[in-house]
Protein 1
Amino acid sequence: MTSYPAPINPTQTRIGWIGTGVMGAAMASRLLSAGYSVTIYARNPSKVVHLQSQGAHLADSPADLARNSEVIFTMLGHPSDVRQIVLEGLISSVNPNCVIIDHTSSHPVLAKQIFDAAREKNCWAVDAPVSGGDIGARKGKLAIFAGGNEDVVKWLKPLFDVLGKVTFVGGPGKGQSCKIANQIVVGGNLLGLSEGLVFADKAGLDKMKFVEAIKGGAAGSKVMELFGVRMIGRDFRPGGFTEYMVKDLGMGLDVGAEQGDDVVVLPGAALSKQLFSAMVANGDGKLGTQGLITVIERINGK
């Protein structure tokens, strides 16, 4: 299966890409830079001129893209977008042996439905959400959580290697479950870092020295590496929108109920969701998740 249906080759494998936001555009750019032929569908073509300058082709519609691609990547906003564009759109137009890779942080049940629908068309689907933010996307350092068929994921590895490090985590939907668990951890880390910085400031510490002092100890983390300096510098440009973090944590809190299973009790994730939701209520849903510090500051009268 690792040669299915023929080995990945930059000069022969035709790539389709849908979703050119902060993350998607950076990821598509890396594939173009690696020499792959990439066709993009964008509702607003003016936003992908920079990708066209790298050699990307434009498709008139998702169906047009599907007909001219062997591997299709999607990086969308919400599960509703995935349902509409992938399950209700792309799959009806794909060629046999096509593989659809969904990088969107979406719902495990929807990922399973897409996998089953793809198999009915003699195709494969891989749910492969990512972690690492805009910096990881630009540098090709993303953590990629892949669910689906393991041999298909192995076949796709040359493409994943351009984007970051892929880990096969199980069958259909397991990539999405892994991303939800990842977001639970990231949310807790962002909350701890936000509170630590606010406390340090109130205590009269130099916040840069505080971060430098603790990063080599148990408090150090990738979240601190990615967002510590940004928080201190009030740089809240999004690597991922806060409103998406609310979505992801919400799926973690209700996914068991939606599948008819016992709900996992997640008090920390529930608190994190409330605080990120406060950011959205404050009009900051389009800011990066590192903006959580603004909520903690407001609570403390700053």
Protein 2
Amino acid sequence: MTTKSLNPFTILPEGCISEIISFTTPADAARSSAISKGFKSAAESDVVWDKFLPSDHQDIVSTSVSVVVTDCKKDLYFRLSHSPILLREGRLSFWLDKTSGKKCYLLSARRLVISFSDIQLFWEWISDTDSRFPEVAFLNTVDLLDIRGKIGTRALSLGTKYAAYLVFKISERYHGLESTNAMVRFVNQESEDEAEKRATTVILAARAPRHLKEKLPEKRTDGWLEVEIGNFYNGEGDDNGDVEAWLLDSRPFHAKCGLIIEGLEFCPI
């Protein structure tokens, strides 16, 4: 009489299998559902997907401008990773990175500090059918281009490297957007002068090829452009206060126009 070898997972209680799967990744958990009916039930349990969701996800979802209804934690994860929700009176967008479950934010133009944005001669607030926000900022003309956005590091996922991006468009008529200083700084740790000294150069729009060392915009699937302003590491449990992404072009007598801003995005790398 022969003794068949047993897969140890087949004799484990479902709760134990769920606990094991919760230490993997969302992609691994989704693949585990195809192994067997037993694995499917364990891999789709709230025990697993609650680990993949941010610990403060209930507080975040509760501030959504529209009600988020899902049947289970897995459905909530996929809802947040495929469809951003609007928070804070519709001026902040939140979603999860599909692969890692890390938190992502897009600060609307209305949440940014934009020099002279309250003067219609320089900036206008318009609607755009591609935008998730009610309004975007349209640049008529300025000499000083100064755009800043801050977010608290505690709102972001810990132990994660993030990049900050300007999300924008260029109108048919534009000028002076070929060279802009870009930087990211921890507000409590670095002064504005220190940040400016290590600024990089980004290209928002150019009519001729530029140097490879300068960062160029990339086309997004949502109809907008993005350009990386900089990146930073959000440490494990360290309270770095606010992190600020900043674009600055202060060249005198150098008019700029034709920039359309949706917002500043913070996403994990």
